[in-house]
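Every protein is a chain of amino acids, and every chain bends into a shape of its own. The protein below has been through that process, and both of its lines are reproduced in full.
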Amino acid sequence: MHIILTTPPEYRDLTTPAQVLGPPIGLLYMASYARHYGYLKKTNSTIEIYDAFTEHIKHEQFVRDIIEKKPDVIGTTVTSRMFLVTMSCLARIHHALPETKIVLGGIHPTFTAKKIIETFPFVDCIIKGEAEKSFSELLLAYYNNEDVSKVKGITVFKNGLFIDNEPDTMKNLDEIPFPARDLVDNVRYGYTWNGVDLTYGKFTAIVTSRGCPFTCKFCTNWMFANRSLRVRSIENIISELELLQAEGYKSCVIIDDIFTFDKKRVIELCRQIKEKKINLVFYCEGRVDSNDPEMFKAMKEAGFSSIMFGIESGSQKILDHYQKGIKPEITKLAVKNAKDAGLHAIGAFIIGAIPETKNDVKETLKHIHELELDGLEVNALGMAPWDPLYQKIEYEKKTKEHDWMRDHLVSEYYDNFTQEELAKYVEDAYYSFFRIGILNNIKKMARGFFNHPDARHAILRCIFNYNAWKVAKEGGKPTHKIEEILMNGNDLEFMDEKHLKKLMIESKN
């Protein structure tokens, strides 16, 4: 069998394409598991990764490429934002290749599995939750023409009945082989902002734990793993980092939901990184209430360049609404401790909560200005079709028939802010960050240049980067963020009711 694992194609005509381009770690884990434990050999299979999203492949090209490759199985990971374009592409692929098995996974199919199978019969199977073992066992069942109903985590329609098995959870993460990065070795990954490179050298991502014990209202990652926090051993992580260094990687982002949760574990990992002389630049995320000067010092000495804190808001009312469990005073201390240790402190914020007012936004803008962060990420609040915010709206009967097929801004259902106002507030947030005075901006650049090799390379590259000069001229205007907000829900034909009905009729034929 020939197997293709894909990310969704791009469909939007943004001035600056996607900013966060990390490798599809979930697909790479699935491929490595099937290869390592002999499933590819047992099924006489070859496997490839087609990262259409990172390579900015448009949906028309995606369909042509897959049809030309003629896979026996296509597995696609899907988010809410990319769901409709993905289904439109897969419907056309199914029409051309009716014998190809179509398997969906990822966070959107995990929580809408039955609806997808009911609505789009060309989908053969959905794997919910963590898919490494389930996908391998599904391949074996396909190859041997056996019953798939006993495979964990799957949703299928068989003999007039829905089979909806409980998701599989990998309890021992050390048993999962390292991601099959060799399958995407020709793809360039990295983070950018308005066309300005933010990451350093050959870049990848790594997972050291899965799950999160917190239940923030705006986040659904904890639901995906059912709040089950599991960690890899330090020895297993170090082995992967040594391999990355040997393969020429220069930097990696740790994409754990809650990397800094266990201070002792982080310090021990950092100690071993130093001891093994692993020379990589690291980026990570963390909660502000999991901050510790000793931990930050160890991280800096081990090669960590930055930490992004989930700050969310400067209004205590909004923080309480999100069930975040933090206070602005804790945030100030976390940022100070990180910067004192020599780390870049980046703040992530959200604007657009249901009870949020213009005064709350002003508190957030003031908070951003006072924190003197080294970097900023601001988004308008979005909702996925399964998170608590959406469920509340669904209970209030504000949703439409097909709303479960995509993500939404809160402004679609509540009138506290319009899309245009959200875009303006996000723009103002970035202005609050950039417009802190020429002297302070020079100090930031000097600190980055002398303390961080990745920042030094970024600054030198920016001298000859047109986009960098454009950002400076526009005072930090977040063009890509504004475009994404204003395009949400009305930027493509896949959202049109007529197109949806046509797609669903075609999918049943």
Remarks:
- The first helix runs from residue 25 to 36.
- The mean pLDDT is 88.
- The first strand starts at residue 2 and ends at 7.
- The CA atoms of residues 18 and 54 lie 8 Å apart.
